């Protein structure tokens, strides 16, 4: 039996961040991470396409929380304690400079997730955090004033326990044995599979400002939209996949979306097209892309409105004008599945947030049991917000653990 002050289950983003902060804040505590893999931080390694999108340049807590389809309300308080600005400072104090990209995402200046891994491994060593690899936790047994933790090969005892196992169905099952309620997991952050003539042969085309609605629901998002080989991606779609994670799972990822490619009303668009009919009378519609739409997308939408390649603006009849306005402002596409977004994906679901005290990230059901990261029913849209959740929860839990 190995006795410890603190055991952290899971050597991922949240687990390492918590362990290091506990050890830094209270060097007297013995801290051990139990990690089932031969190495830890594997998601950090592949994150952000290998660059690790550490956080996001959004510094107002009320704005920041809006990026969390699950956790919006609960993270408000915690973000007043530790959020993006603190993350940047923490990494800078520990030798990792971060840079901001145009869209607000923040990466290590090195553009390599290995910088984050090296930082964590270096600090863990420096502050004497013990990391036990190839230790899969199989059971957690509450005892009087301590926890008994059994892995496939060893037994550990600790006064305080932090669970940071990410989206692990086995751990969620185990936590149910401790009476914690688990919100059933479903994928979040995925791209839409769409087979449609209008987007065939134009992968890579981006419409910068679109609105996307899921037909027969309140789900709505806006932003850039990317046509891919198998359907659609980019923030407009990814946001919808995150905010609609539960609803779209219920529909088995078969639903219709209405896209407004130009963010104007149908009627506005008709008026604009009428003016163009006059201004560009002698030009062919197909060759004169409008509304800042990429040429190839414009052409597909024109053809979909049954306007032939040779038709001139002056020759457009009322029906064709309306059909084109419909394609531009209310184009319906059938989604018949989802694909993984390779740069980042997360799972919605996890430990029910009603059972967590967000001042400390402690369980309301068991004293000295803490949670941080994706094990909780918190997830965000893409952009560095998922890691921010891991850093915030881990830091606050660490503060409480190291003081008590
Ligand atoms: C491809 C990809 C790219 C991503 N890119 C980004 C990004 O750029 N920015 C961003 O903000 N988010 C990104 N994410 C999301 C982000 O990686 C997660 O939200 C984050 O890693 C969650 O941290 P965590 O510590 O809770 O879980 P994890 O990082 O998943 O760590 C959990 C750890 O627990 C271990 N474990 C599980 N069960 C047990 C057990 N029973 N016993 C012992 N150990 C166990 C696992 O092996 C793992 O090491 C990405 C996700 C993916 C999949």
Question: What report would you give on this structure?
Answer:
- It contains 13 helices and 21 strands.
- The strands form 5 sheets. Strands 1, 2, 6, 7, 8, 9 and 21 form a 7-stranded mixed beta sheet that branches. The protein has a 7-stranded antiparallel beta sheet with strand order 16-15-12-13-14-11-17.
- Helix 1 (13-25) packs parallel to helix 6 (113-126).
- The chain has 404 residues and is α+β, with helices and mostly antiparallel strands.
- The two termini are 24 Å apart.
- Helices cover 33% and strands 26% of the residues.
- It has helices at 13-25, 42-50, 61-64, 76-81, 84-93, 113-126, 169-176, 235-243, 245-250, 266-279, 295-304, 318-329, 385-403, and strands spanning 2-9, 31-34, 55-56, 98-100, 105-108, 130-132, 137-143, 146-151, 155-163, 182-188, 190-193, 206-214, 220-227, 231-233, 254-260, 331-336, 338-340, 346-351, 356-357, 362-363, 369-371.
- The model has no long low-confidence stretch (mean pLDDT 97).
- The protein binds flavin-adenine dinucleotide (FAD).
- Flavin-adenine dinucleotide binds at residues 9-15, 34-37, 40, 42-43, 46-48, 52-53, 136-137, 164-166, 168, 170-171, 343-346, 373-375, 384-387, 390.
């Amino acid at each position: 039996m190995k006795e410890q002050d603190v055991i952290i289950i899971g050597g991922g983003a949240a687990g390492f961040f918590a362990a290091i902060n506990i050890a830094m804040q209270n060097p007297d505590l013995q801290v051990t991470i139990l990690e089932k893999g031969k190495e830890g931080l594997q998601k950090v390694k592949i994150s952000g396409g290998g660059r690790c999108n550490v956080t996001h340049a959004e510094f107002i807590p009320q704005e920041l929380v809006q990026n969390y389809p699950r956790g919006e309300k609960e993270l408000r308080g915690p973000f007043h304690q530790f959020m993006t600005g603190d993350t940047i400072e923490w990494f800078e104090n520990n030798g990792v400079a971060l840079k901001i990209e145009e869209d607000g995402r923040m990466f290590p200046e090195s553009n390599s997730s290995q910088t984050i891994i090296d930082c964590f491994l270096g600090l863990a060593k420096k502050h004497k955090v013990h990391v036990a690899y190839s230790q899969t936790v199989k059971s957690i047994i509450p005892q009087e004033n301590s926890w008994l933790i059994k892995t496939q090969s060893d037994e550990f005892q600790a006064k305080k326990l932090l669970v940071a196992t990410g989206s692990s169905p086995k751990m969620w099952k185990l936590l149910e044995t401790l009476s914690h309620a688990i919100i059933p997991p479903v994928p979040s952050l995925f791209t839409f599979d769409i087979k449609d003539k209008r987007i065939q042969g134009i992968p890579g085309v981006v419409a910068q400002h679109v609105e996307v609605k899921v037909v027969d629901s309140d789900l709505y998002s806006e932003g850039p939209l990317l046509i891919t080989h198998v359907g659609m991606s980019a923030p407009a779609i990814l946001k919808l996949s995150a905010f609609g994670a539960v609803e779209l799972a219920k529909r088995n990822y078969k639903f219709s979306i209405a896209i407004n490619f130009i963010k104007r009303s149908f009627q506005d668009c008709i008026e604009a097209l009428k003016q163009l009919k006059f201004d560009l009378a002698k030009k062919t519609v197909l060759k004169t892309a409008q509304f800042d739409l990429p040429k190839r997308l414009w052409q597909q939408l024109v053809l979909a409105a049954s306007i032939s390649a040779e038709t001139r603006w002056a020759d457009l009849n009322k029906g064709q004008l309306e059909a084109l306005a419909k394609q531009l402002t209310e184009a319906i596409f059938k989604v018949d599945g989802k694909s993984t977004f390779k740069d980042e994906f997360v799972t919605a679901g996890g430990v029910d947030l009603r059972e967590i005290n967000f001042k400390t990230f402690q369980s309301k059901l068991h004293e000295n049991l803490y949670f941080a990261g994706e094990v909780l029913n918190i997830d965000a849209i893409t952009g560095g917000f998922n890691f921010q959740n891991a850093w915030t929860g881990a830091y606050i839990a660490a503060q409480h653990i190291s003081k008590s």
